[in-house]
Amino acid sequence: MRLLNANTIKLEEFNEADAPPYAILSHTWGSQEVTFQEIQGDGLVPGSKAAGYEKISRTCRQALKQGLGYAWVDTCCIDKSSSAELSEAINSMFRWYQNAWVCYTYLSDVPSAVGAKSILSKSRWFTRGWTLQELLAPRRLVFFAADWHPIGTRGSLGELVSQATGIPGAFLRDDGEGTYKMPRGASVAQRMSWASRRQTTRPEDLAYCLLGIFGINMPLLYGEGRNAFVRLQEEIIRHTDDQSVFAWAHPGEPTIGSRRFDGDARVGSLLAPSPEYFGGSGDIMPADIPGESAPFSLTSRGVRANLRVFRGDWGHVGILHCRRSNELTTLLAIAVTRESDGRLAREVDQPLQLVNFRTWSQTPAAPNYLRTGAAPENSQIPEGCLIVEGLPERLRIRHVSKGFTWSASTGLITRDSNWVGGTYVTRWPEDFVLHIFLQPKPPKDSPYDLVTVTVRVRRLHSRTELVACRIEHSKCGQPVAGVNQLPERFFATVRKLDLFGRKAFVIEISEWKDELRLLERRLPLLQMRLRSFLSNRFFDFMDATNAWRALQHWEPILEFALAKPACGIALRLTLWPPSVPQLLRWTDMIANATTRRLPQPAWLWAVILSLRLAWSRIGHGAPTRRFTSLLLDPYVAVLVILSLLSINLAKWILLLEIITTNWTLPLLLYYVRHRSESRPL
């Protein structure tokens, strides 16, 4: 390392292990700093860079007053024209400040030591990234005003410095007080929070200035931008098992709070983009859990960790081995989304969650991979996207309704809100209606000039939806009369699809060309019309008067994850007339018990429909006798067992029963013939 001779103000080189005691300068750079090349030359004119030379001269004079023969100043002791030397110096900087006998902190914007304490915290020195390690590393530190009069030591001004920086006073005491504490005793999240409000001229330096604070060495790559901070976190992961490195939150949002459901789950990296994201993490520390270790490692698939992932009603949270300093009985957790390849991706717009130890103990630990980088845009299939299949050659998609985007290259229709600020959105809890406008080719030879497909998705529960679809043929803005008699007409169906772990909707647009095609598509068309009917007639006014419809249309009901009121109504209508008060209480108890224990009791609807059909076969009689006969009916017992074992098997048995039941088929045919074409979505 190079040191300035305090008497001659000339550079001398030393092996670091043999370096004499020296003073070191901490300051903010100005426009007249003296460089390595200038301090070496014989023709240095002090007037050309008066302010910079004055700092060097004053530092040397102050060192001589304290009996030190050497000083170190970063502006002139490093040859910044050599990238190798610059990289070595930055990786050694913390150690050089730590080994100095004393550090002089020069505050050029604090005019005088008189009254300096009132404006100390407003100094620019407290906002720069490089000065953070210069504050923490030295064993002794003295603040000087612009006139080079001492303001006080780091220990004597500890309370003011702590308020200005957010650093606890324990890390600001001087070595002479006997209680000097190395900053590496703080958690990763705490140390990151100290840098959250600091700035650097170059974005890479926001990471490089923290190398010494975390005891990390890594090559410098100027030009990589904010990726330098990602590399820093990756190096920290390789050297520590402190999971507080993941305990960050989006700037401007609460660091810890309830999970939000505003329709946008912005999925991103497990690692923070910048120290700013740790602004509220100053009180986060590792949790000491006896008998449990939390090692994690960095792999090509992301961070591999034995993470406890708890699944709640609204998604997954990964429980971290860290807590707030004043919360002894809770742990912190991050909101995550399970991707199609099994990895977990962090929901970056969600605050940290609080999880109690009971939830932690009931959630088993398992190896998980957590994404550390965003997936390529073209490989991400948005949750809730719509896939257009089977588009006839005679049709082309002209445009889609506002708020959606159609991609001819991928065949996907996505919501415009799937990308927010360059971040990918995967969740869509709100209902939506999509209009697809298709144009015949050529339009002049067709009895219609526009074909409109309308898709409605209605959210019924956190993981279930009702999907309906209809198609309209129009000419000059008016519906075409007698469209069912046209030889060249189209129909559309929509179905839900689990696409590599993500929910999607498939819209199939077909042409009525031949009888075989017609017969093949009859059942999907009936299903679409039935769902449209339920959307129009049932779910807008679900009450006891209209809830009987739910017992006649099995397919949509089997897809619901029931809410308690709906389950209670169904049990009342199935088991007994709803005028018996005592039975109402019983059914409420049954409904609450079943829905509380079963997050998705779809099989319960199969049981209810079984009872409804068996009840109609048993006939009339006293309610008690009918109920006893129902319980003893072997058909009911078999169907209940099948329902519990296999939803699909029970569904097809029930379909056969419903089709052969006299009161269901006429209603279905009446609806298909008279209702579907005339009722709008």
From TrEMBL:
Domain of life: Eukaryota
Keywords, ordered alphabetically: Coiled coil, Membrane, Transmembrane, Transmembrane helix
Keyword Transmembrane carried by entry: yes
Domain Heterokaryon incompatibility: 22-109
Pfam families for this protein: DUF8212, HET
Domain DUF8212: 227-252
Alphabetical list of InterPro entries matching this protein: DUF8212 (IPR058525), HET (IPR010730)
Transmembrane segments: 630-647
This protein's name: Heterokaryon incompatibility domain-containing protein
Species of provenance: Cephalotrichum gorgonifer
